Amino acid sequence: MNWYSVFRWVVRGVVGILVRLEVTGRENIPERGPFLLIANHQGTLDPLLVQGSCHRTVHTFTKSTQFSSGPVFRWLLPRINAIPARRYRVDPQVVRIALRLLKRGEAVGIYPEGERSWDGTLQPFRRGTVRLILKAGVPVVPCGIAGSFRAWPRWSRRPTRARVSVRFGEPIHFGVHDRRHEREEALEATTARIARVLVALSQESRPADRTGA
Question: Of 11, 68, 147, 160, which sees the most CB atoms within 10 A?
């Protein structure tokens, strides 16, 4: 059984109950080939929103502690292509896994802030994520989430029904930076560019672009 497809089908139904979701820009998601899906992280629902809205299978970085938080998560997370990643530290094993998946033509999803926002605004990026983007050299599809902070912030125990939008932007190409000094030289400019795009995509109102979930 394709558990990922089942999961996505269930997620779409659950998300439709929890929030009023609008999705735009699906045409920007490559139909085939590798890409990195880079999203801002406003609230608890973000992984469901992103994976439920993207028609491609995405292997998503997930904090490693989730895999030991109970039998349900231990069973579910590997079946929905979650990649265990340690927070606040460089994890070479995760980088190797991501690069192998991309080489196979898969999609990898990362929240570059590394955690949910405390105030709904974009937080500083983990530098390791940007280095991975530069080393991989695959298209980067930015994904802006707006309204999920209001729907379910990190400190709340339950969601509040709210309007939420997920917007996929046009792929960004940074090229391959094989050498470490090349990645370091391009680090700040790459970070700034992705941040600008995510901030623009996560603005609250763009009613002319509505396409529905």
Answer: 147
* Strand ranges (E), the chain: 20-24, 35-39, 58-63, 82-85, 107-110, 140-146, 163-168
d(CA 196, CA 52): 24
Question: How far is 77 from 114, CA to CA, in rounded Å?
Answer: 18
pLDDT digits (tens, 9 = 90+) for 7-64: 999 999 999 999 999 999 999 999 999 999 999 999 999 999 999 999 999 999 998 8
> Exposed/middle/buried for 64, CB within 10 Å: 0-12, 13-18, 19+?
middle
Angle at which helix 71-79 crosses helix 3-18, to 10 degrees, equals 110
Q: Using CA atoms, how far apart are residues 12 and 157, in angstroms rounded to an integer? A: 21
Q: Where are the beta strands (DSSP E) in 65-160?
A: 82-85, 107-110, 140-146
- Which tens digits make up the pLDDT trace of 154-169? 999 899 999 999 999 9
Checking DSSP bridges between strand 20-24 and strand 163-168, what pairing results, if any?
Answer: parallel
> If DSSP codes are grouped into helix, strand and coil, which group holds residue 51?
helix
Helix axes 46-53, 3-18, angle to 10 degrees: 120
* pTM attached to this predicted model: 0.92
* Kind and range of the H or E run holding 158: none
196: enclosing H helix or E strand:
helix 180-201
